[in-house]
Amino acid sequence: MLFIVAICVFIVSFTVWLKLSLWKKIRRRLFPDNKHSVFNMLRDAAEYNFVGTSVNNSLYIDIVKYFCKKSKKFRHYPLFTYWLCGVKLVFIHKAEAIKDLLKEKRIIEKSTFYNFMKPYFGTSVFTCDSSQWKERRKLLSAGFHSTMLKGYVTVFNEHAQKLVEFLHEETGKEFTCVERPLSLCSLDIVCESILGVKIGALQSEAREYVSSLDRLSDMAMSRIWKVWQWPDFIFHFSKAYRELLQHLRIAHGFSRRECNRIYPPVPIFGRNITEEISICGYTIPKRTTVVVSPFLAHRDEDIFPDAEKFDPERFLPENSAHIPECAYIPFAAGPRGCIGRVFAEMEVKILVCHILRNFSLHSLDSRDQVLPIIKITLQSSQPARIKFRRRQQ
């Protein structure tokens, strides 16, 4: 047993040493916070080591706080680096750097971390390789054309009315945790519009299915922070993999702009650099993982002063003209930007319209109490408690 442990320790140590040597000898570049790779890896581990930490909302809150702090520290640089268990991540958080990356039509390969999500999403446009993506994006684009989206409005209105009926029953309560009914209504809309299947998620007709989707989302993110589960041959022997198969069987058997600035639906996305490129004068070597964070970019004080303040006037025509390209990208951007952006925006407008016509809303929690956490999409760390009261007709 001790011999096996020793072999494992040796393999891990050798792998880390080899990665460091390759970076130093072949791919080393002078990033703003990277003059000694070994030092920086140890420094990142000492500052905050997320790996191995219990995966829960507290961890996700700490992650957001840590990278917001780091983004402010390097606010005068277009990028900064972070070592995640021997993997060097380059975080891009300035509009000009994001623009340099996204205008590179050659760089459309998703980050290797998206491979962890393939058991959940398959080889969809969200996770597939660049060679598969072009063909699949072309096939799917027709379904999201503006003429097709107009045909979905009837479905949007139908489910918006069901949501209103559900919320009418909530008006007598002290508060309602609003995320759940909204997300279930959205799931109903997507399934009926895109898949042609009515699942009745809001009416609890698909409780097991919805529960499995929630758990699959948590499991997809949790694997990133459990480095020992990165290799598939190890993950396939784990308890988490057996649970994954169980949930997959169930799942497979079946003022807007400012809000999006503060809470972008796509808070973070990654790219693999397949060819050496230059970003804002910094050379990014081949096979680097680059992380783009709209969440951090939208908090750039140089572009959005007092960035945490909710101020819709930022997007008045006379003000928005001064916002640089790629400074505001709530649904990502570039060739692999979100294909469902217009669909999602139409859905939000119709749901909000129905809700506000029928109810007055009062939040029982301040924004400081409901902190954002980054999972596959941006979510809240705790339920947002909303008091619904019927409007006088």
Keywords for this structure?
46% helix; single chain; three-stranded antiparallel beta sheet; alpha+beta; 393 residues; four-stranded mixed beta sheet
Can you walk through the features of this model?
The protein has 393 residues and is an alpha+beta fold. It contains 16 helices and eleven strands. It has helices at residues 2-25, 37-47, 57-73, 95-102, 118-121, 130-141, 146-150, 153-168, 179-195, 207-222, 232-235, 239-252, 256-262, 294-297, 317-320, 341-358; strands at 79-84, 87-92, 176-177, 269-272, 277-279, 282-284, 289-292, 359-363, 372-374, 378-380, 385-390. It has a four-stranded mixed β-sheet with strand order 1-2-7-4. Strands 3-11-8 form a three-stranded antiparallel β-sheet. Strands 5-6 form a two-stranded antiparallel sheet. Helix 8 (153-168) packs antiparallel against helix 9 (179-195). Belongs to the cytochrome P450 family. May be involved in the metabolism of insect hormones and in the breakdown of synthetic insecticides.
Question: Helices, strands, pairings?
Answer:
Elements: H1 2-25, H2 37-47, H3 57-73, E1 79-84, E2 87-92, H4 95-102, H5 118-121, H6 130-141, H7 146-150, H8 153-168, E3 176-177, H9 179-195, H10 207-222, H11 232-235, H12 239-252, H13 256-262, E4 269-272, E5 277-279, E6 282-284, E7 289-292, H14 294-297, H15 317-320, H16 341-358, E8 359-363, E9 372-374, E10 378-380, E11 385-390
Parallel strand pairs: 2-7
Antiparallel strand pairs: 1-2, 3-11, 4-7, 5-6, 8-11, 9-10
Helix pairs in contact: 8-9, 8-16, 10-12
Cofactor: heme
Organism: Caerostris darwini
Binding site for heme: 338
